[in-house]
Amino acid sequence: MPPHAQPLLDRRIIHIDMDAFYASVEQRDDPALRGLPVAVGGSRERGVVAAASYEARRFGVRSAMPSITARRQCPDLVFVPPRFDVYKAVSRQIHDIFARYTSLVQPLSLDEAYLDVTAPLLDRGSATAIAQEIRAAIRAETGLTASAGVSYNKFLAKLASDHRKPDGLFVITPRMGPLFVETLPVGKFHGVGPVTAARMNALGIHTGLDLRRQSHAFLAEHFGKAADYYHGVARGQDDRPVDADRLRKSVGAETTFARDLTQWAEVVPALAPVFGKVWAACVRGGHTGRTVTVKVKYADFQQITRSRSCVERIASQAELEQVGLALLRPCFPPRHGVRLLGVTISNLEAADDAKRPQLALLLTPRSLGRR
Q1: Active-site residue 112, yes or no?
Q2: Active-site position among 112, 254, 319, 321
Q3: I need a surface site. Which of 35, 63, 70, 262 has the fewest CB within 10 A?
């Protein structure tokens, strides 16, 4: 154990995650929607699901899914247009509740945050008691439910909040931490996306215990700078602080192809879900940005990036696609096949009311004239 890890076991971190936030707000405000499979987003052909109720999730409907796919999986799905002003107002209510207990609050989006209650403003004897009180206050004051995870670091607190969703509370103590991680599939680790999980699986790393058995040198060879993080969390260690009011710097997604791409005509359909995922994350977080970056990794594992900063903030998924595809177009035809493409939007700012109507358009993006 690194010398800095032991004192960090004394920290008390809470992760609060609202349950199906956007959809739950809509069901709260419209009783006719309660019990129905609800998707917040655009129902048109090129729309995307920003959020799905738990009733919809039972059919496999999920955030960032194309609306046409969601409708196919759940024919009775009810689409509701987003109301960002309402979601932001409710989020402010929730953060006012957090502020009663600690000033160390790190929002991840409108519906999710870390709280450091090691030295709380209102001491209830334990972090668990504070989490229980916060959940009760959220229910009483907003009519919504939240799940909470309590632990000694951010990684485990987030795992704990996922463990009993929806409307649950789970605690991972320092004694439990390393054992809890052992049986967890690496795909469930925060910070390990589908592509990285597939790479780990190919290396024989399927669980936290498998990951723990790898040397730091091995992880550095295969995962570069992320090796420190993976090496630590496999042992239940995570020294990242709760950064109060830290704004997310970027939102990105990428996809690795089963077959290398060689033609421009293959790019547009291949990237459609990536653009949808990035924009859905912006919508959920209530922010947008001005800089678009695309990443290209070739069959020989060489990679390049191309970026463009816009004068105005990106206002729709269609605009994000236009900028991203324009950056990629000169890269085709490639000298080598393309095995991975990625898209990131950065220079993020909160989406203010003036931009709200344009953000709403994002969920029913206008056609780029290529379908």
Answers
A1: yes
A2: 112
A3: 35
